Amino acid sequence: PVTIHLKDYTPFGWQLSDVHLTFHLAPRSTRVVSKIHFTPNPEAPAQDFFLHGEQLTLIRAAIDGVDVTPEVTEDGLRCAVPDGPFLWECEVEIAPADNTALEGLYMSSGMYCTQCEAEGFRKITYFPDRPDVMSVFTVRVEGDLPVLLSNGNSVQRGDGFAEWHDPWPKPAYLFALVAGDLVNHPDSFTTMNGRKVKLNIWVRPGDEGKCAFGMEALKKSMRWDEEVYGREYDLEVFNIVAVDDFNMGAMENKGLNIFNSSCVLASPETSTDDNFERIESIIAHEYFHNWTGNRITCRDWFQLCLKEGLTVFRDQQFTKDIRSAPVKRIDDVASLRGRQFPEDQGPLAHPVRPESFQEINNFYTATVYDKGAEVIGMLKTLVGDEAYAKALTLYFDRHDGDAATIEDWLKVFEDTTGRDLAQFKRWYSQAGTPRVSVTEDWADGTYTLTFAQTTRPTPGQPEKAPQVIPMAVGLLNPNGDEVVPTRVLEITEETQSFRFDELAARPIPSINRGFSAPVVLDRDSSSEERAFLLAHDTDPVNRWEASLLLGRDCLFAMITENAGPDVAWLDGLERVLRDRDLDPAFRAMMMGWPSQNEMAQVLFERGVTPDPDAIFAAQETLTQFKAERWADLLPSLAAEGTVDAAYRPDADQSGKRALGSAVLALTTRLDGGKAAQAQFESADNMTLQLSALGQLVRVGKDQDALAAFEAQWCKDRLVMDKWFGLQVGATAPDNVVPRATALTQHADFDWKNPNRFRAVLGAMAMNHAGFHRKDGAGYALLTEWLIKLDDLNPQTTARMCSAFQTWKRYDADRQALIRVQLERLRDKPKLSRDTAEMVARILG
Ligand code: DPP
Ligand code: ZN
Prior knowledge:
Blueprint: E1 4-5, E2 14-24, E3 30-40, E4 49-52, E5 57-63, E6 66-67, E7 71-73, E8 76-79, E9 86-94, E10 104-108, E11 111-115, E12 135-142, E13 147-150, E14 153-158, E15 161-170, E16 177-180, E17 183-190, E18 196-203, H1 212-229, E19 237-243, E20 250-251, E21 256-260, H2 273-288, E22 297-298, H3 304-322, H4 325-344, E23 356-357, H5 366-383, H6 385-399, E24 403-404, H7 406-417, H8 426-429, E25 435-443, E26 446-454, E27 469-476, E28 482-491, E29 495-500, E30 508-511, E31 520-522, H9 527-536, H10 540-561, H11 567-578, H12 584-590, H13 596-605, H14 612-629, H15 634-640, H16 651-671, H17 674-682, H18 686-698, H19 703-713, H20 717-729, H21 733-744, H22 754-766, H23 768-771, H24 777-790, H25 794-800, H26 812-826, H27 833-843
Helix pairs in contact: 1-2, 2-3, 3-4, 3-5, 4-5, 5-6, 6-7, 9-10, 9-11, 12-16, 14-16, 15-16, 16-18, 17-18, 19-20, 20-21, 20-22, 24-25, 24-26, 25-27, 26-27
């Protein structure tokens, strides 16, 4: 396998003024004709004329009208070309109906669609398929289908053809084409400068009733980006298409976003509150890419975080603005710790800007996206809101139309603020989660906090240098009053102290408020102090954090010392739950506790080999104990968690339902599922129906409900994904593998569909104790299916290998069982480059 390095970047030898493509669509014999004007690039070193191309049948190639015979290899073609500008013409044949990798031009339920990021365009035609080659595309689509779409504005449409022109130069990864029998949910938007833009959501017939929410989210996103970032939309039309078979969530192709149908279709009957919120944020995310990604794109794929980190940051800001900011922040912190921290602390650790890869698809990771967003949040904290806004304006002014780098990005901040960001840049180049230990000193009214930072070695990076850590700190006095409001301490040294003078009493510190830096905090704080912060902290994130830390310690003691639940913690939590001034959504979050996966990590960090069965058992004991202890509180909380008004997926109602669902989880421990059964039967929306079903699955009283649910929803693919996933994800550990096995034999287990595959096998891998059962049956089942899927869809296969990334945490027997499976995968004949790279990295 070839490893590609950031340091080897060289510009392409030619510039492309315009690209003309004609598609003659046919399922197994689509012809793609391209005409491209190439002009030598004066800034590039001399090089062979090489165009990427994979799985193409070359029909004809010509230069300046004269046929040529290029040298064709597996990954592209080479050809002798004139010294000056020339016209390249080429015709290839491809078979979209046979394209199961869902990359390039493929078919999904009879419709043609594309996915070109990162390197899918080379499966459509011969082309310099790299993001720094930008060009104006004109596309003609010919096919016997009612709807024919591509990027940009519609130029012409007639019987069996359509022509599109995108005036904005773009790289090939933003190319898109859709053709099919689709119906439209239309609307329009008037931009800040009064231009009317047509908006469309295109779906398969039958799904038109599930578009309204997505459309509202799109209009909100467009307005928000104008108001907050001054960014206006720049084409006459914005199209969104829903596709059932899609490897990722969605794709920001210029003017023609393509979405996994699960990330755009929504209705109260079929979607949960969480689905609605996720859809809203993904629509925003893809729309925001129009500026951060499309108008300003990436020079090379190492710079992926330039567009993804920033766009995630922007979609997080958007959600905070239109929903509850603290709740959103806690959600994001939980997800960062649940997904990114394990990555950053295991064999797959890589910098936010990686320095090498074999297959770029393997780097669409939590680190690039979510840690990438955290890095931008830290930058904003360090320079302040005003400077951030100025820097962003400069970024858009200076780099519009560019394929830019992280250096360009940081330079606008340096030029705006005069700050030297050389040290800050380590956030982009050093992998691993920094650990910050805190010690404190109190004497004569002066309180001193001393921070020491270290980052453990990660693959390829044995030594780490200190990073810039913006540590937001507030101090409370023993009465619970805030004596020092939040202040951002800038840690730059390996060890650094900060003094707070003239305090009347020794304060209680609230450190890393708002999770101002994505670090692991090591601090020996007493449980009294945590309980104090749980009761008094003014920072919602740290209040939640205090409870989480108490929960960790409680479970740790239960697992390792057979201790009983920590009553002081639960009493403190109860006071929070009883506080009706607190947002129900926040209280629902406070009712959560460390996941089994997180507890496995905690045990491992503290030198105890995690036993998944013991973790599960402790969680069960704790849940039962909570239910009993709070028995008299639950009815009133349930009442607060009940919504009488007509269903709306807004923050207010969903917060209440989240509280209701957290309460139901406890009530079910007391009534054996009676309330859940009643809720299941009376539910008129998917949120209530699914949370009830989840509880019935948990207590094993799910046979009738699962059958009823299936009968009701068997025609709805997205709802059936929930049905498949929930019965594996929520069931008792012993049932997980048998159930997953049985479901893979279900007539509707369409394993070539990534959503369905993930629903079963992904849910199995996330059921901690079920997946990690002692006999290794979970590991074997997952591997068996990964081996099967790899021939068809390397991208989804490779991504799911990360289920094994934490394997070194576990005991020798489990490690041996996992190793056998990883080696089995590694030794599979014709293993894809994607999966091979992942397995090699995980094996280490
Ligand atoms: N660029 C897409 C996104 O993150 C992923 N293909 O929105
Ligand atoms: Zn993105």
